[in-house]
Amino acid sequence: MQKYAKILESVRTASPLIHQITNYVTVNDCANITLCIGASPVMSHAPEDVIDMTKIASALVLNIGTLDSKQIEGMLVAGSVAADRNIPIILDPVGAGATPYRTKTAQQLIEELPITVIKGNAGEIGTLAGTTATVRGVDSGGVAGDRKTIVRDLAARLGCVVIMSGEEDLISNGSRVAGVRNGVPLMGRLSGTGCMASAVTGAFAAVAPDTMDGCIAAMVSLGIAGEAAAKVAAGPGSFKPAFLDAVAALTPEQVAGHAKVTEY
Amino acid sequence: MQKYAKILESVRTASPLIHQITNYVTVNDCANITLCIGASPVMSHAPEDVIDMTKIASALVLNIGTLDSKQIEGMLVAGSVAADRNIPIILDPVGAGATPYRTKTAQQLIEELPITVIKGNAGEIGTLAGTTATVRGVDSGGVAGDRKTIVRDLAARLGCVVIMSGEEDLISNGSRVAGVRNGVPLMGRLSGTGCMASAVTGAFAAVAPDTMDGCIAAMVSLGIAGEAAAKVAAGPGSFKPAFLDAVAALTPEQVAGHAKVTEY
Amino acid sequence: MQKYAKILESVRTASPLIHQITNYVTVNDCANITLCIGASPVMSHAPEDVIDMTKIASALVLNIGTLDSKQIEGMLVAGSVAADRNIPIILDPVGAGATPYRTKTAQQLIEELPITVIKGNAGEIGTLAGTTATVRGVDSGGVAGDRKTIVRDLAARLGCVVIMSGEEDLISNGSRVAGVRNGVPLMGRLSGTGCMASAVTGAFAAVAPDTMDGCIAAMVSLGIAGEAAAKVAAGPGSFKPAFLDAVAALTPEQVAGHAKVTEY
């Protein structure tokens, strides 16, 4: 698991600038966790601003949690700059499957941009895979079929890495399929842990020699930090500051020693 | 007080989806408290998205804390779907009385939509009641006249439940008037406790057999959680995580045992 | 240092209403710190609302952290009302120097409005001063030349107070130059401490007999609160609630006793 520890070290050393066009619900948490993991966050959505901001960024994170037409315009403009510069684009298709607008927007972003990583819950990933899946608001209502097959086939079809979060996070680049079993249930009781994972995935994808390894390292790192935070938290409220503290204090040694990764 | 405890149990069992069109200042707190009380939050404001989101929601919360024309458009569209589906609509008229734009928007929402519950501070409710009232920014500057009469008359005139928050929260459906004396002063020193109360009122109104009882149960539940949180908080900053923890840990037994409700 | 302690007392006594048009990343922190220092925050950006809101405010804070064309329109409208009413206007030029849109917008606000205080990091202030400076996202990448000269010359040229934040905060009104050495490194590891400082500067500028003294008092107060919070925080996550607690608990005696101000 030294491989994943090294990617965390690279994040800390390079401190990549992560440009995030994201929702207004969890944006503060995304900024703070980006700082805590060792990267540098910048949020900007105006079409007039995103071209120049993406030009100096090392990864672009697109999160459709509270989308509207102006924001989508900003995402497409920023995404085309990211594509030209060949920096990773992370898509978090929040609520895809819950409403047609979200599903269509996620699909549009996938069609028009060379997305590098798609990270969502089972319902969102299942929706994009065309499987029977349900999403209730922004929560997964489940997915039909074998999850490993779904992520691998979607990744192969789109030529990107797919992360399906859950009790076991599943990650695939279309050939490899890996599972990550780090993390605690408290992470599901706090708003924004999914969004935070996408932000951190951006930081890891920005520096990782292999994108799939970077995604695994991101999920492992947050899961281990969550495990540490759960030991000091009294509930979902105190879990948030404890989680940010644990992410900031996370060492490569912890990652190497506690990673629970299975290659299938 | 078993009646109120049972409504909390119903929230936990049903986990209703609460669609919130709200301000960007306290939206994260609203999402987290909705989760902590046992319901499921979703935030969405784009007119293209809100129709489908409201179709799967169990209550709609409209909060005008940082309103603009696009958001009002989304509120009216979502509200008409909520009306068709007969799900509760909660209005938090943040800052009504402080500026004409806020007062007029609150009045427009009340005229065009079958609002189920209006929850505001004394100045906001007084403004909507047409009494002499002052609002300074988003803080109540007080109201002239008997508060119980104001809430009862406004509720009777509009055919809805009115909650006037304060040291004693007053709740009326036009015939009954009840007072809730749970809560602590620290709740007034944190931004967003009023908005959080509206979010939680949405969750309780979604499942309560009687809306007024649901509103009382919501105010009692948050007040008791606030009392518990104040015991471990060192100030307004640490009160927030402690409050969320206390809401998540709140039991029906606590509600039944500590509710301070007076029917007038 | 009694002078600075007295300004804190005035904030607590007057509880000025601080109208903030700011970014959606740190807006909740800005609202809470405004409350904790003893003032009253209100956030509003719609051109339809800001005229009336600025009419009842005691200071206006403009923060371009997540700007767009609609928000700039609101800033200009609010700023012209603030100018007519002669209340302080604080500008936080977040990211000026990182993108042309941010630099141009900051310059436009400075040209069209009688800005009272500009508060930014070294890169942002250097950019506005026309010095060689770099900004990476929203983080300072440094500035060439003598910092004291840069802040004094910019303040003299624009006829306002300039605050350049850093390990030593430098403050000038064009003739006096002062340095504040309060604060801790943890403040730089949390998103939003800069924005919070601008909000609090608005509160102090609203009541201070002399604007430069008000700015010094604001930086001293937050620095001392940060020092206190660092003693109980386990990392950047727990630092935030501890910082808000410390700001709320801050006494004039602490300010008088711990201020580290140098007049150059």
From TrEMBL, chains A, B, C:
Q: Give its E.C. classification number.
A: 2.7.1.50
Task: Describe the reaction catalysed, as an equation.
Answer: 5-(2-hydroxyethyl)-4-methylthiazole + ATP = 4-methyl-5-(2-phosphooxyethyl)-thiazole + ADP + H(+)
Q: Tell me the Pfam families matching this sequence.
A: HK
What pathway does the UniProt record associate with this protein?
Cofactor biosynthesis; thiamine diphosphate biosynthesis; 4-methyl-5-(2-phosphoethyl)-thiazole from 5-(2-hydroxyethyl)-4-methylthiazole: step 1/1
Q: Which GO terms describe its molecular function?
A: hydroxyethylthiazole kinase activity
Domain of life assignment: Archaea
What is this protein's function per UniProt?
A: Catalyzes the phosphorylation of the hydroxyl group of 4-methyl-5-beta-hydroxyethylthiazole (THZ).
Instruction: List, alphabetically, the NCBIfam families matched.
Output: PRK09355.1, thiM
Please report the name of this protein according to its UniProt entry: Hydroxyethylthiazole kinase
Say which species the protein is native to. Answer: Methanocorpusculum vombati
What would be the name of the gene that encodes this protein?
thiM
